[in-house]
Amino acid sequence: MSGEIFELNPDAIRSATKAFGEAADALSRIQAGEPVGDAAAGVGLLLTAESCRNAQTGITAAFAAAVHGVRSYGDTLDAAAQTYGAGDVSAADAIGNVDIPG
């Protein structure tokens, strides 16, 4: 061990959790597949339209996966902060309950 003391700042983690939640919300509002869908509508029944619709489906799925990943990461950070905070309180209580003869 390097002799360094590990410190964790639960407030910083909660702040990051909020930022990831906001990023997920912003990503979820982006209609990334929409321009490709508009292109499909513009070319009618051509094979290009089918390709555009397929691309639209893929883009929409990719954005949904990104939103899920970002939100999931934020939720994991939040759970870590809560677990750490609970452990901190528990340790403080245990130390406070030690009977030191004096």
Question: Topology of this protein?
Answer:
Layout: H1 10-29, H2 34-42, H3 47-96
Helix pairs in contact: 1-3, 2-3
From the structure above, extract its key features.
102 residues; mainly alpha
Note down, in words, how this protein is organized.
- The protein has 3 helices and no strands.
- The chain has 102 residues and is mostly helical.
- The model has no long low-confidence stretch (mean pLDDT 84).
What is the radius of gyration?
Answer: 24 Å
Proportion of beta-strand residues: under 5%
* SSE string: HHH
Shape category: rod-shaped
Give a quick account of the main beta sheet: strands, pairing sense, barrel closure: none
Number of strands: 0
Structural class: mainly alpha
Instruction: Calculate the mean pLDDT score and round it.
Output: 84
Model regions low in confidence, pLDDT < 50 over at least 5 residues: none
Q: Please count the helical segments.
A: 3
Regarding quaternary structure, how should these chains be classified?
A: single chain
Please give the share of residues in helix.
over 70%
Span from first to last CA?
A: 34 Å
Provide a quick synopsis of the model.
The protein is mainly alpha-helical and 102 residues long. Helix content is 77%, strand content 0%.
